[in-house]
Amino acid sequence: MMESGVVDNEGEGQFEAETPEGVAVLTYDRREGKLFLLHTGVPPEMEGQGIGGRLVRAALEQARERGQKVVPYCSFARDYAERHPEFADVVQPAE
Fold first, then answer.
1. Angle at CA of residue 71, ends 22 and 87, nearest 5°
2. pLDDT digits (tens, 9 = 90+) for 64-76
């Protein structure tokens, strides 16, 4: 189940969450059976409100459901994964 308010815009290669100040995104590349998280972008006025975390959680949950590994190239996503060991089974360190 997708994190509340987050949609996977596969055509654009990004998870999205609408905010009052614009769309927050987590861009990704899906290849080799893995989900590579590339960049998290949240409107500056909305930073610190948990929106980026919701995007990363949605990506991790979806990857788990699909049996995929997640490679977090994005530093925000990598930090989130480190703070949430419950996702250790799906996270593969970036090389």
1. 85
2. 999 999 999 999 9
Integer CA distances (angstroms), 60 to 9, 21, 44, 47, in order: 15, 25, 24, 20
N-to-C CA span, the chain: 29
SS3 call for 70: strand
pLDDT (tens digit per residue) in 33-59: 999 999 999 999 999 999 999 999 999
Is-contact 16 6, C-beta < 8 A?
yes
Helix, strand, coil content of the chain in percent (nearest 5): 35, 35, 35
> Using H for helix, E for strand and C for coil, what is the string for 18-54?
EECCEEEEEEEEEECCEEEEEEEECCHHHCCCCHHHH
Instruction: Write out the H or E segment, with its range, that includes residue 71.
Output: strand 69-72
